Amino acid sequence: MKLDYKKTFILGLGFFSASIIWPIYNNYVPIMLDSYVQSGVLIGAIMTIDNLFAVIFQPIFGALSDKTNTRFGRRMPYLLVGVPLAAIFCSLIPSATSLPSLMIFIIIMNFAMSIYRAPTVALMPDVTPSPLRSKANGVINFMGGLAAVIAYGLGGLLYKKNQAYPFYMASVVMVAALLVLYIFIEEPKEIENAENQKDAKQKAMTRDVAKNKSLILLLFAIFFWFTGFNAVETFFSLYGQHILGIDPSDSSLILTTFSLTFLIFAIPAGLIGSKIGRKKTILIGIIGILAIFIPLIFVRDILWILILLILGGVCWACININSYPMVVEMANKGQTGAYTGYYYFFSSSAAIISPILFGWVRDLVGSYEPLFIYSCIAFGAALLCMLFVRHGDVVVDVAE
Questions:
Q1: Do domains 5-183 and 207-387 have the same CATH topology?
Q2: Pick from 282, 302, 297, 304: which is nearest to 225 by CA?
Q3: Is the domain 207-387 a CATH 3.30.160.20 member?
Q4: CA triplet 65, 66, 67: central angle to 5 degrees?
Q5: What's this model's pTM, rounded to 2 decimal places?
Q6: What is the three-class DSSP state of 73?
Q7: What is the DSSP string of 45-110?
Q8: 314: how many CB neighbours lie within 10 A of its CB?
Q9: What are the E-state strand segments in 220-327?
Q10: Distance between CA atoms of 179 and 170, rounded to whole angstroms?
Q11: Residue 120 contacts by C-beta under 8 Å, 6 or more apart in sequence?
Q12: Of 30, 207, 280, 392, which has the most beta carbons under 10 Å away?
């Protein structure tokens, strides 16, 4: 059994289209908001709308896509509605002339993104055999990382020419990716009817008790490791400034090495998960992150920090690439979209809660020094949860 890399890269265009917009949105929308809003807290609250919508709407639309049956497929109708709508309102954001108009564009764009993100990601397990999903998820996350690199690089150059150009670029890329997906990706024709799903659920009820316990533990592990990751991602620039004594721009460049290593290692991490097992690969990744972040509590030498974060990106890829395939592996047939929604609910909840929680810790101790202690505690909790996960893996060492 071999992974169809050509089809998987095309499938990754869906994640590519969703990923290219967020760096542009996160970089430039706060600048626009600053023209109308004086409160940094309010700007920060507005910038969490994407995560709030992810928590509320992505599980809903993921589950709805499981029950959808049209001539366009199950997932594609949500892309056909969400992508153009998101592209239109993304392109309108830089044309806003008042806070109300800017907020309308922001809210509708975020809602449109929530319509199609979970159904888009659920396409991968729909068209990919179970043993190959870690490999496929590696390819798809590579495409997402590539989109972010393009957004930061090309988007920055375009912004210098005209502040609207990065938003126009993202909108065009999103629509182009949708067209390619629509033309080249064919969803499975077989869709279970409600009666068949009911019978399958009844037969699997006893088995699902144990499986659901593993699912809950895995989802909390996801929450904890994203808690640890998001704190570092959010506060490392301030940690660099106040603890390491370096310029925030240098902190950003140092942290970029973590992201670039993740991008480079995304596909290999999927291959490793297919060979030795997803759970084992994730455990290696968590233990590796702890082995790297614990020294970072004490290390102040920039070169060593850079080396450790490069290794951290490898470990983060081992964790992140193999976790989503484990979640959907536990889904009953016809529930992939719902389980995709569960994954985003827990990861997005961490993105909302963790910056606030570490901000409280920082205020309590009066320093950013506990950043890596906080992160290690979160990853330690994730490790504890993962040790008791018993489902979500597949027979490994798939023949090429």
A1: yes
A2: 282
A3: no
A4: 90
A5: 0.86
A6: strand
A7: HHTTHHHHHHHHHHHHHHHHHHH--BTTBSSHHHHHHHHHHHHHHHHHGGG--SHHHHHHHHHHHH
A8: 19
A9: none
A10: 14
A11: 14, 15, 18, 75, 78, 79
A12: 392
The pLDDT tens digits for 253-292 are 788 788 889 999 999 999 999 999 999 999 999 999 999 9
**For the chain, how many residues are written?**
400
Q: From the CB of residue 375, how many other CB atoms can be counted at a distance below 10 Å?
A: 27
Q: Where are the domains of the chain?
A: 5-183, 207-387
Q: Return the CATH superfamily for domain 5-183.
A: MFS general substrate transporter like domains (1.20.1250.20)
SS3 state at 118: helix
User: 3-state secondary structure string, 158-198?
Assistant: HHHHCCCHHHHHHHHHHHHHHHHHHHHCCCCCCCCCHHHHH
3-state SS, residue 220: helix
Percent of the chain with pLDDT over 90: 52
Contact yes or no for 36/96 (Cβ under 8 A): no
User: CB of 120 within 8 A of CB of 93?
Assistant: no
Q: Which of 231, 144, 127 is nearest to 186 (CA)?
A: 127
Is-contact 29 38, C-beta < 8 A? no
